[in-house]
Write a structure and sequence with these properties.
Blueprint: E1 3-7, H1 31-44, E2 45-50, H2 61-70, E3 77-82, H3 89-97, E4 100-105, H4 111-117, H5 123-135, E5 139-146, H6 157-163, E6 168-173, H7 186-201, E7 205-206, E8 212-213, E9 216-219, E10 222-225, H8 236-239, E11 240-243, E12 248-250, E13 260-261, H9 267-272, H10 274-283, H11 290-293, H12 308-319
Parallel strand pairs: 1-2, 1-11, 2-3, 3-4, 4-5, 5-6, 6-7
Antiparallel strand pairs: 8-9, 9-10, 11-12, 12-13
Helix pairs in contact: 1-2
This protein binds S-adenosylmethionine and iron/sulfur cluster.
Length: 320
């Protein structure tokens, strides 16, 4: 079985985005841990996501160059989500030599909304980075985290995507912190519902859409109606391995339940462990960990989304 790996190069960051829950962590994955991950990755990994918390490019050019060399005999596809502030000629050259897709988090195409959310970043620099990536033949995407500051205008990123020749566009939304989340209204649900066909109409692919929105589930790239979220299950925790910059392993990048540390136990042992099996069962039980109860991938989170519980009856019976 091949896993999707989520590797955290560093927890350091150069921005302070409005919705980001990153604390004052300050670690970079060591060369020893890179080796441990790489030994396993080329046998068991299909897609490698090189980001979790923090800005991955802050781990440095040497970190990435070393990591790619270690994984070079495997058939691995890399995805790096970045705030786009640090891409230079050297990074772009390196990424162009491996199978690296770059996803730029932009959150808004409007400079003032952008600056309000992505505190410390500049849309001009993102545009420069996108241009540089294209010149070097790197596949690019943009990603928008929908929250109360951009919910009225998030669809504007489509025009930005078209005019900057990106390959795909992704959407997610903020559940926590509540201070940044928005209240679902029929109009907002409608905006999400229309998004996949608008993407398609613009000739763009998707690099991630919410699996669930109130009353709807994403299936084959389209949202379909479904009623109350009962008997949902999480498959994510069976095919994902996340390794933080200090070697802690978990089965979901959203769930900080650590099953072991690669400094102390091998990945092969962890995969056979009782701890892993129990966690996967707990996640898929009637009483999953609290974090899973707000997850919009598994769908459990629908009942705790702001606005959903209160208005689900009207969503179901009238509007949709
Ligand atoms: C944690 S960041 C790490 C990579 C990089 N620093 C960046 O900003 O793209 C990965 C993605 O998570 C999104 N994100 C940050 N805080 C979030 C939150 N509270 N809920 C949902 N997504 C969030 C970011 O907008 C970004 O697209
Ligand atoms: S750039 Fe990424 S990691 Fe840094 S504060 Fe923003 S969302 Fe968080």
């Amino acid at each position: 079985m091949k896993y999707d790996f989520w590797i955290e190069p560093t927890t350091q960051c150069n921005l302070k985005c409005k919705m980001c829950t990153l604390g004052h962590e300050n670690s970079v994955m060591s060369e020893k841990l890179q080796n441990i991950v790489a030994q396993y990755a080329h046998k068991a990994c299909k897609n490698m996501h090189l980001y979790l918390r923090g800005e991955p490019l802050l781990a440095g050019l040497k970190w990435f160059s070393n990591f790619f060399k270690l994984n070079n005999d495997g058939d691995v596809y890399y995805k790096v989500i970045t705030n786009g502030m640090l891409l230079d000629q050297s990074f772009a050259h390196l990424f162009s030599q491996y199978n690296v897709d770059l996803i730029f988090s932009i959150d808004s195409a409007d400079p003032s909304t952008f600056s309000r959310i992505r505190r410390g970043a500049s849309l001009d620099t993102i545009e420069f980075s996108l241009k540089l990536a294209h010149e070097m033949g790197i596949k690019t995407s943009i990603y928008c985290t929908v929250q109360k500051y951009n919910v009225e205008s998030f669809k504007d990123i489509l025009n930005f995507a078209i005019s900057h020749n990106v390959h795909s566009v992704g959407l997610g939304f903020v559940v926590e912190p509540r201070s940044c989340s928005f209240t679902w209204t029929p109009q907002i649900v409608q905006s999400f519902l229309e998004f996949p066909s608008q993407l398609q109409g613009a000739g763009l692919s998707s690099c991630g859409l919410p699996q669930f929105i109130p009353g709807h589930k994403l299936t084959n790239g389209k949202y379909y109606r479904f009623d109350e979220p009962t008997q949902l299950s999480c498959d994510q925790c069976r095919r994902t391995l996340c390794v933080t910059s200090s070697g802690e392993v978990s089965v979901c990048f959203k769930l900080p339940r650590i099953i072991g540390n690669l400094e102390k136990i091998s990945l092969a042992e962890l995969l056979k462990s009782e701890k892993l099996r129990c966690l996967q069962m707990k996640i898929n039980s009637d009483n999953p960990p609290d974090m899973c109860k707000v997850c919009t991938w598994s769908g459990y989170g629908l009942t705790s989304l702001p606005g959903w519980r209160m208005s689900s009856a009207s969503f179901n019976h009238h509007t949709l």
